[in-house]
Amino acid sequence: MPSYQAPLRDLRFVMNEMLGYPAHYARLPGGDEASPETVDAILEEGARFAREVLLPLNRSGDEEGCRLEGGEVKAPKGFREAYQQYVEGGWPSLAADPAQGGQGLPHSLAMVLSEMICATNLAWGMYPGLSHGAADALRHHGTEEQKATYLTKLVEGVWTGSMCLTEPHCGTDLGLIKTRAVPADDGGYDISGTKIFISAGDHDLAENIVHLVLAKLPDAPEGSKGISLFVVPKYLPDADGGPGEHNGVACGSLEHKMGIHGNATCVMNFDAARGYLVGAPNKGLACMFTMMNAARLGVGIQGLGLTEASFQNSLAYARDRLQMRALSGPQSPEKPADPIIVHPDVRRMLLTQKAFAEGGRMLVLYTAQILDVVEHGEANAERERAETLLGLLTPIVKAFLTEVGFEATNEGVQVFGGHGFIREWGMEQLVRDARITRLYEGTTGIQALDLLGRKVLMSQGETLKLFTKEIHQFCKAEADNPALKVFVEPLAKLNAEWGELTLGVGMKAMQDREEVGAASVDYLMYSGYVTLAYLFARAVKQASQSLEGDETAFYQAKIDTARFYFQRLLPRTRAHAAMVQAGAGSLMAISSEDFGCGFEL
């Protein structure tokens, strides 16, 4: 079974030393509750829960999977008990508003816990993870009655949430949904239709499940402009607010999946299920985006957690596995062979994992800090700037961290060699679980279109300039810092090129809109690599100031990892830039009929 230790020292470096979290928390309303002592206690206890409670259930949950019995879904053994411990520990309410029963701590602190959960048991973590998004949607768009009925239960964790969007005939194009909502006499709606790929759609962990469902009213406009959002509980609340009569919603079947076997991915059937409108009629997609954006950040954290888990186990194996001698001569002459960690190619794979884990953590915590400002900033201008940056970074967090997370878990299998292909080591499960992260909550291609098309080009580049200006100011301030010279110079060039690439795509798109789709994924990956380069440069600045003392090795390793990233991973931007500039011509030249070229379908 894989092992795991929460990277607390690295978390504290990024939070306390690099990003100044203690001062950040002190500026937030009620931030005095997030004292350094409280934060440390939460990190330590979260690490213990993830390691001792969730990790032992990861492999067994994968092997057992979920079961559909008598129309009810049963989660793997131990999942329900772990969830009860999670609720009793107060974890669901950590960052929720005290007015709804929450503890009022910053959202960023909950995101740190999410990394630990995703690293130890991704399938289990999806059950409470979806509840946070459902609570956010109701908090922002629900009526006071809906908040009183559902929100407190979600915050407490006694009820969980799900997000019901996709249907058999439509995935990303939600304007095609067929689920219908017919007005009822009591002010509610009868919801009928089928949804597929619904994570945590049914299970036995909590006493009720609150489904947020996209559907169309009888007189709704065509397309996405006619979508409304409804809250549809599995059990209708009774007079006391508890779960009462079973609603007309049921799991029709469980999907047979490549990974995340411990999470119930359901086909959900709604048969005149009673639901209640959330937000305004035909404005459901805007309401659902509150939940979707939270979920997208959560999926990015899943990529980070799996990267960290793969790296830790790869490192332990590479230190122990004996194979051949180092090319420069025996490094462990007392042993029959050297540990494989001495070999350059093994180190390349390990450092790739390490760089993506540490860089991804910096990106998540940087973004989490911005989210705190969006939620709690006192000045309007500060909140508006933070909201713009959050919009820019969300598709990068989601797509880039899941793309490199899948790469990192595959490298983990490679470090183990043939043993990585064998189930008992647990590395192949990480690959299977990581694969879904590139798909759900919007594929990499969809995130890339959101980044380039909506966030950057639709704002005439102003959204991007907000971030590139920050990078430019950092590079200018550190231009004469000898410790940062080899980092700042290439970063400054890439930062300038980022704007030039954007302008180039924008000019081409004025003549042919297909240019946006042709460039988008490479543009997103380019953006991700440059963003991590900026954060690594900031990390080097902090680490270089702390080389004297008892932790010299930790800080030097941070600088060395950054150097590896700049020399070995950042050059990938050259290929992505070339592909962005290549345009849509070669992609669109072959007609769809001629794709086969030699065979008939």
Automatic annotation (TrEMBL):
| Gene3D superfamilies in UniProt | Acyl-CoA dehydrogenase/oxidase, N-terminal domain, Butyryl-CoA Dehydrogenase, subunit A, domain 2, Butyryl-CoA Dehydrogenase, subunit A, domain 3
For the keyword Transcription regulation, the answer is no
Name the cofactor(s).
FAD
Which residues span the membrane?
none
Task: List each copy of the Acyl-CoA oxidase/dehydrogenase middle domain by range.
Answer: 162-271
| Gene Ontology MF terms | flavin adenine dinucleotide binding; oxidoreductase activity, acting on the CH-CH group of donors
**Can you state which reaction this protein catalyses?**
3-(methylsulfanyl)propanoyl-CoA + oxidized [electron-transfer flavoprotein] + H(+) = 3-(methylsulfanyl)acryloyl-CoA + reduced [electron-transfer flavoprotein]
Q: Does the keyword Ligase apply?
A: no
Q: InterPro entries annotated for this entry?
A: Acyl-CoA_dh-like_C_dom, Acyl-CoA_Oxase/DH_mid-dom, Acyl-CoA_Oxase/DH_mid-dom_sf, AcylCo_DH-like_C, AcylCo_DH/oxidase_C, AcylCoA_DH/ox_N, AcylCoA_DH/ox_N_sf, AcylCoA_DH/oxidase_NM_dom_sf
User: Taxonomically, which superkingdom?
Assistant: Bacteria
User: Which EC class does it fall in?
Assistant: oxidoreductase
Could you tell me which residue ranges the Acetyl-CoA dehydrogenase-like C-terminal domain spans? 467-590
Q: What EC number is given for this enzyme?
A: 1.3.99.41
Q: What positions does the domain Acyl-CoA dehydrogenase/oxidase C-terminal occupy? A: 282-450
Q: Which UniProt keywords apply?
A: FAD, Flavoprotein, Oxidoreductase
Function summary: Involved in the assimilation of dimethylsulphoniopropionate (DMSP), an important compound in the fixation of carbon in marine phytoplankton, by mediating the conversion of 3-(methylthio)propanoyl-CoA (MMPA-CoA) to 3-(methylthio)acryloyl-CoA (MTA-CoA).
> Which family does the UniProt entry place this protein in?
Belongs to the acyl-CoA dehydrogenase family.
This one is known as 3-methylmercaptopropionyl-CoA dehydrogenase
The species this protein belongs to is: Vreelandella zhuhanensis
Lineage of the source organism? Bacteria, Pseudomonadati, Pseudomonadota, Gammaproteobacteria, Oceanospirillales
